[in-house]
Design a protein that fits this description.
The longest helix has 29 residues. The model has no long low-confidence stretch (mean pLDDT about 95). Strand 4, helix 2 and strand 5 form a beta-alpha-beta unit. With about 260 residues, the protein is of the alpha/beta class. It has a 7-stranded parallel beta sheet, sandwiched between helices. The chain has 7 helices and 7 strands.
């Protein structure tokens, strides 16, 4: 029986991935922050990636680095502590998990699958901090893929587009009054667009299927795009910069 550890397994992509692997015969260690929130059929591990416990494993066939948060708002008014929190969870925490589990992965010639985002290629307005973290995760994946290759440890990144996940539906604090005075109309237009797209997003199970492929395929890809909008945004990024900006302004902000 192969063993995988999935971080952020209490909901969304992490829960779907943990459940799918367990159903297909894996021993799944489900990393969650609160007791009693791991999917059925998995082994719950209380785990905060910003301060992970020492994990003693004889071997590990797969690490799915899924835990993540999204900090939103205009960068001009982004509190430094919020940026640090964004990067601490989405970047530093992911690397810390690899560092802790590299010995176990080396024993099993295991695989690492980082859950990135199309935002790691395509930064949208008002999601700059989130995109910064996902761009960094892309760089981390590229470096690790080469560094860990001598021990047969494959490293891949999955880049979903809009997914139906609680991360995008949680209530967020309003920006300060100064920010609303300057950005209010554009923020409202972007929120309306984002809520609509979230409702139409692909199911988390679609990402879980791709993660399983990355963990099991004999010909693992370095990157996996998931979802129609991810492919569309990847295409937009090939446009000249000024044209790209005009497209996003019209589509996301209603031309404001």
């Amino acid at each position: 029986m192969k063993t995988a550890l999935v971080t952020g397994a209490s909901s969304g992509i992490g829960a779907a991935t943990a459940a799918r692997l367990a159903q297909n015969g894996w021993r799944v260690l489900a990393g969650v922050r609160q007791a009693g929130t791991a999917p059925k059929g998995t082994e719950e591990v209380i785990l905060d990636v910003t301060d992970p416990p020492e994990l003693e494993l004889d071997g590990l066939d797969g690490l799915v680095n899924n835990a993540g948060i999204a900090v939103a708002g205009p960068l001009e008014y982004l509190p430094p502590d919020e940026l640090r929190r964004q990067l601490e969870v989405n970047v530093v925490g992911q690397l810390r998990m690899v560092q802790l589990l590299a010995p176990a992965l080396r024993k099993s010639r295991g695989r690492v699958v980082n859950i990135g985002s199309i935002s790691g290629r395509s930064a949208l307005p008002f999601l700059g901090a989130y995109a910064m973290s996902k761009f960094a995760l892309e760089a981390m994946t590229d470096a690790l893929r080469v560094e860990l290759r001598p021990w047969g440890i494959h490293v891949a990144i999955v880049e979903p587009g809009t997914i139906k996940t609680p991360m995008w539906t949680r209530e967020r604090p309003d920006p300060p009054d100064e920010a609303l005075a300057l950005y209010g109309g554009r923020l409202a237009a972007f929120r309306e667009f984002a809520l609509k797209r979230s409702a139409d997003g692909a199911p988390a199970e679609a990402v879980a299927k791709v993660v399983e492929h990355a963990l099991t395929s004999e010909r693992q890809k370095p990157r996996y795009l998931v979802g129609r909008d991810a492919r569309l945004r990847a295409g937009v990024e090939h446009l000249p910069d000024r044209l790209r900006d005009r497209v996003y302004k019209r589509v996301l902000l209603g031309g404001t």
